[in-house]
Amino acid sequence: MSASTPKTLCTSGQQSIQDICHPLSAEESVRTPSPDVGNTTGSIGEKDLSLPNGTPVDTSSPASSSSLLNRLQLDDDLDGETRDLFVTVDDPKKHVSTMETYITYRVSTKTTRVEFDLPEYSVRRRYQDFDWLRIKLEETQPTHLIPPLPEKFVMKGVVDRFSEEFVETRRKALDKFLKRVADHPVLSFNEHFNVFLSAKDLNAYKKQGLALLTKMGESVKYVTGSYKLRGRPLEFAAMGDYLDVFTQKLGTIDRIAQRIIKEQSEYLVELREYGPVYSSWAGFEGPLQEPLEGVAGCVANCAGALDELTEDMSDDFLPVLREYVLYIESMKTVLKKRDHVQAEYEAKLEAVAFRKEERTAVGPQPSPVPSVCVCLCVSVHVQKSHGQWPLFVRVCVCVGVAVPSVCVGGCVCVSVCVCVQVAVPSVCVCVCVCVCHAECPLYPQQPPTDVEKCQDRVECFNADLKADWDRWQNNKRQDFRQLLTGMADRNIQYYEKCLAAWESIIPLLQDRPESTKTETS
Amino acid sequence: MADAQREDAAETDTPNANDAQEKTTNSTMVEDSSTTLLKRMEITVAEAEKRTGKKAVNMQETYTVYLIETRPSSAVNEGQSVAPDALWRRYSEFELLRNYLLVTYPFIVVPPLPEKRAEFVWHKLSADNMDPDFVERRRVGLETFLLRVASHPVMSNDKIFYHFLMQERGWKEVVYDTGFQAKADSRLRALNATFRVKNPDKRFMEMKHYSDELQSITSQLLRARARVADRLYGVYKVHGNYGRVFSEWSAIEKEMGDGLQSAGHHMDAYAASIDDILEEEEHYADQIKEYLFFAEALRAVCRKHELSQYELETASLDLTSKKLQREELATGIVRTFSFKGMTTKLFGQETADQREARLKLLEEQIVEGEETVREKTAECEEHVHSGWEDMQRFKEQKDRDLREAFINYAYMQMSMCKKGIQMWSNAKECFSKM
After folding, report:
1. Chain A residues with CB-CB distance to B247 below 8 A
2. How far is A309 from chain B (nearest CA, A)?
3. Of B78, B127, B205, B254, which is most buried, counting CB atoms within 10 Å of its CB?
4. Per residue, what are the HEC states of A324-383?
5. SS3 of A54-69
6. Residue B215: closest CA among chain A residues belongs to which residue?
7. Half-sphere exposure of residue A7, counting CA atoms within 13 Å on the CB side?
8. What is the pTM of this model?
């Protein structure tokens, strides 16, 4: 797939990004199929040589029939719904401007969704844009798991950011990212996603956005907040445990894979010294010359096959593994957010219960009427005799609450003691104060209290998370099935190549020349 | 390989056996009983055993003995189950036999013994002489040695060799009685000496050069192969870690668990498979090693030629100078410088009697010298003739053996590849069921 000699990418020359980003520019409006995308001319919904979620078969990789078959067998379509959104990332190009050098990728979209104005789009995006998209998704869909991006910064100093291998690895990861978003029933309808796929000028759109919370700030908000969870539901606790162990195992697998690559490289070095010894020997033998050369050639072939295997594993296996570690981190973050929301809810519940106790100690209780919530909306103009400011509140008076939590409309949130001094002697009343300004009907349909909103939030989050978890588990299963089968495949191919090499020299070795006594050594 | 090269000793009495033997091929087809050969016996080194004995006062040593079994071939062919004659010999006795053969047949490329100590080890192989794998490979090597000697047209007729196979006790004494020890010492000295030969046989010089190259290349090959084996071992064994981690991982998975677990087992099996693979490859290494040592034996024959030729040249020179002296003495013309001549000039002529005496001595010496030259010439010629013949035989044997070794090596590699394909296919099946 990737050549062993690093090739430099073709660049588009010195141009500013504004000039380059023509999503529907002349060269791209004619949707010429690039070698990587195998299904551009097919209509939407066709599966052909692409995965159900729109991933075209990477025809540039060694087209072994077994690996092709693998891709075809992947069954992604759980819901049975017809895919109506296909996204692909390909065609990396280098851009050199006065300020910087960077890579853009072509993002191609095909869709029948009404949310999109056109059925097809082709835009150019750089890594920054993907990063921006991810941040927006995290902000706007905090209850959902956002797929990870490949690492922004390359830590290993020797890696060339513009080498073909690095760019290809990154392209694949970006492609996977967009596909995962496109597959998600909620995320794919996100407005920012839509703009990302369709806008000619993403930068202009970016500037319109509200002042952003930085990603850092947000994570601080959700992660470092100290809270005590009363009762984390078992299933989420189990998820957390699972992720912890899974991260560990992935780390181990990564280390093993790296070690294998290292050992194989050292084996390769020795092989490359071993083979030529046979050649040297052939140099001073007579009838044994051909067999010796044959063996030397065989060893060289095996060495070549090993080289390919090692390279493939390095390029294809390790990055996917690492990406999953990032994915797990994202999932853990979402779990923490959920915990935080639940903690908030629990805290508010506690506060309300506490205040309720206070209320009973202070003044006359409204007589508890079980299961009946009467809502009385009274506008009271209260003026503090001593104070300077008039306070206008709309109060809902709740009367008689037996069990707060089952009461429709959530009757007890905050109990407030308000001393009112008017013409009549001061009266202590316990009231429910709703901050909202909605009309309070007589029937128990009260505006949602703070607590109620929290509870809603928790329940929503839980539901979203569960759905995302199931989806993630499923994708994980397929991804690893594909990854590991791919690894097995490559090893099988390696051995097949070696076997073929040795088989081919058997006839050469067995072919005995006529031995004559006058032969000189 | 030893099994593939079973050979039978020729009959001792027919003089034509030598010629017939030359047609012997170390063929892999054991059952190909060419009826032109008269088979005598079947030889095997069947077993190895540890013994302890007294080396010196209060010093115990542990050593290994090998069981040599012999059976008349006729009995075997007729399907009779005959109990073989058997005796035990230890490695040092084999060494003694070989030294005897080296000295007695200087024109023969004498087959080597398996190495005394394990060399060219890679990390897994034990360098311990007591290690069972080492002992087993040595057993095979000793059997190969005996079979090669027994199939040699000349050596197979040697009585000491026969005695070695048949009679356990008293063999050492018989060997020493031959007086070969004295020759052995002088041979060693001669082999290591440097001398300049004026007219060596060119073919022998080429052969010597070839033996040097063969020695160098085979040792290089063995070293490189050992390094390759070492690395290959590492690659396979690391895969065993997959087995463990897949097992641990499968514990937290629901649907993926079974597939992962089974795949892990296949990874374990894959990691374990390298032990047998490399053990088998050691046989290939042993075959190459044999020829590393053979190169030395070949070189020895060439050196022997050089020595013979040198002795001949020296004797000839000596004879020539003596003849010249006689001539001078007879004619009175001094052509060459001699000390006697000088003193004669300085101190006066010698008497007629003295001259007569000297002449007589010279004549005797010349007669002796001529005899010596005749002997040496004959010896040299014979050595050249027989030596060249045996070197040709050796060359053909080497080409056959090495070709066969390479074929076996190729089959070994193919077998390793097939095993690898099998294991990874099994693993793949488990993965696809995840």
Report:
1. none
2. 13
3. B205
4. HHHHHHHHHHHHHHHHHHHHHHHHHHHHHHHHHHHHHHHCCCCCCCCCCCEEEEEEEEEE
5. CCECCCCCCCCHHHHH
6. A281
7. 10
8. 0.71
As a whole number of angstroms, the distance between CA B419 and CA A499 comes to 10
Q: Do B235 and A264 touch (CB under 8 A)?
A: yes
Beta-carbon separation of B255 and A491 below 8 A: no
Question: Cβ separation of A495 and B395 shorter than 8 Å?
Answer: no
Residue A20, pLDDT > 60, answer no
What confidence tens digit (pLDDT) does each residue in B414-428 have?
A: 999 999 999 999 999
- Counting residues of chain B whose pLDDT is more than 70, the rounded percentage is 82
Strand partners, A101: A96
pLDDT higher than threshold 90 for residue A271: yes
Chain B's closest residue to A515, CA to CA, is: B396
Mutation for testing the A interface, residue in B261, B413, B418 having most A CBs under 10 Å: B413
Is the CB of residue A495 less than 8 Å from the CB of residue B235?
Answer: no
Inter-chain CB proximity A278 and B221 less than 8 Å: yes
DSSP conformation class of B280? H
- In degrees and rounded to multiples of 5, residue A320 shows phi and psi of -65, -40
Number of helices (H) and strands (E), helices first, in chain B? 11, 3
3-class DSSP state for residue A123?
strand
The DSSP secondary structure of A381-408, one letter per residue, reads EEE-SS-SSEEEEEEEEEE--S-GGGST
* Cα angle for residues B370, B376, B378 (degrees, 5° grid): 105
List, in order, residues 6 or more apart from B331 with CB less than 8 Å away: none
B324, two tokens: 């010249």
- Asked if residue B230 lies in contact with residue B123, where contact means CB atoms within 8 angstroms, the answer is yes
Residue of B225, B256, B406 with shortest CB distance to A274: B225
State chain A's mean pLDDT as an integer: 71
Inter-axis angle of helices B202-250 and A234-282, to 10 degrees?
A: 170
CA atoms within 13 A on the CB side of B218: 22
Structure tokens belonging to residue B306: 């050089």
The count of C-alpha atoms lying within 13 angstroms of the C-alpha of A118, restricted to the half-sphere facing its C-beta, is 14
* Chain A, chain B: beta-carbon pairs less than 8 Å apart: 145
| pLDDT tens-digit map of A26-38 | 333 334 333 443 3
DSSP A163: B
Contact B263, B427 (CB under 8 A): yes
Which of A260, A287, A502 is opposite residue B238, by nearest beta carbon?
A: A260
Q: Which residues contact B197 (CB under 8 A, 6 or more apart)?
A: B306, B309, B310, B313
Is A517:A329 a contact under the CB 8 Å cutoff? no
**Per the CB < 8 Å rule, is A291 touching B420?**
no
Helix (H) or strand (E) holding B20: helix B17-22
Secondary structure (3-state) at B71: strand
Probe site for chain A from B215, B221, B399 (most A CB atoms < 10 A):
B399
Taking alpha carbons only, the member of B20, B292, B398, B305 closest to residue A519 is B398
Please state, in angstroms and rounded to a whole number, the distance separating the CA atoms of residues B385 and B149. Answer: 20
Facing residues of B50 across strands? B64
Q: What ipTM does this complex have?
A: 0.83
Residue with tokens 């003044």: A363
CA–CA gap between residue A484 and residue A317 (Å, rounded)? 8
Q: Which residues are A173's β-sheet partners?
A: none
- Rounded to an integer, what distance in angstroms lies between the CA atom of residue A329 and that of residue B221? 51
Q: Computed from CA positions of residues B318, B319, B320, B324, in that sequence, does the dihedral angle turn out positive or negative?
A: positive
**Radius of gyration of chain A measured on its C-alpha atoms:** 33
Q: Judge contact between B233 and B274, C-beta under 8 A.
A: yes
Map tokens 């639940």 to a residue.
A342
pLDDT tens digits along A249-267 = 999 999 999 999 999 999 9
What SS3 state is found at B64? Answer: strand
- Given a contact cutoff of 8 angstroms between Cβ atoms, the answer to whether A44 and A84 are in contact is yes
